[in-house]
Write a structure and sequence with these properties.
The chain is an alpha+beta fold. The chain is 30% helix and 24% strand. Strand 7 and strand 8 form a beta hairpin. It starts with a strand and ends with a strand.
Length: 252
């Protein structure tokens, strides 16, 4: 279940300043100030998220446009016990769905309270949310950059998605490289590389660092780990990504 509202986040509306009749008030300026603490998103993000979420198997997307629709949408969301619940029972598939959102800057979670019945899925989502928080300035206020010319060692992964989860008469088989990536450019121009291993085994990826990358100090954040570690990003970079894990390479 995904719940998209016209107001992007549950934050209060900008207050109307005194003397509004004598002084012109621009609501967009107040909205921009609210966005500076990292809670807001660019306007286009709502549309992009809706487009991406509708491609996810068995995902229900609700986009209310006024208070009445919002109240009705919440009731529908609380009553909906299908969809993500079926995915939670399959940790690899649940990880793929959530990490897909992380990889392309989407919002995480949007699931029912039944996730607490699946401790592994709940712990995974918690750790992924923590990792996303560390790099959110890139995802919220940056832009996605062209991908790397990367080589992934090992065979491609093959995942069979049940027919009930993809609205098809027959199951859907998905085949692709075990490790995928995206490259981001932050609002200050600093780069970020996100890596995602969707296989049940560790997988290696090799890529050439871009010309401007050696001037930065880089930190490596790994899903489930509290501390980061330094990493060199010059010439050729070779990394092994643990199974079902996301890694963020951040330029400081």
């Amino acid at each position: 279940m995904n719940f998209n509202c016209i107001q992007r986040w549950p934050i209060p509306s900008p207050p109307i300043p005194p003397g509004i009749g004598q002084k012109k008030h621009n609501p967009s300026d107040a909205a921009k100030k609210l966005n500076t603490d990292g809670r807001g998103l660019p306007e286009s993000a709502r549309v992009e998220h809706a487009m991406a979420l509708r491609l996810l198997p068995h995902m229900t997307v609700i986009r209310p446009a006024d208070p009445t629709e919002t109240a009705a949408a919440w009731i529908a969301a609380l009553k909906n016990l299908e969809g993500p619940t079926a995915i939670m029972q399959n940790l690899p598939l649940f990880a793929m769905v959530q990490e897909e959102q992380f990889l392309f800057g989407g919002q995480l979670g949007w699931t029912s309270a039944e996730i607490m019945q699946y401790p592994e899925a709940a712990a995974f989502l918690r750790d992924l949310a923590i990792l996303r928080t560390r790099v959110r300035r890139f995802l919220h206020f940056g832009s996605i950059a062209p991908p790397l010319a990367a080589e992934v060692a090992g065979a491609k992964i093959s995942v069979l998605i049940p027919a009930a989860l993809c609205a098809r008469k027959r199951p859907l088989r998905l085949e692709r490289q075990a490790v995928r990536h995206t490259v981001w450019r932050g609002p200050d121009g600093r780069p970020l590389v996100l890596l995602l291993n969707e296989s049940a085994e560790p997988a290696s990826i090799t890529f050439a660092a871009r010309a401007e990358w050696p001037q930065f100090k880089w930190r490596k954040w790994t899903l489930g780990r509290v501390e980061s570690e330094p990493i060199r990003m010059d010439k050729v970079v070779a990394l092994t990504v643990p199974a079902l894990t996301a890694v963020a390479l951040e330029a400081e």
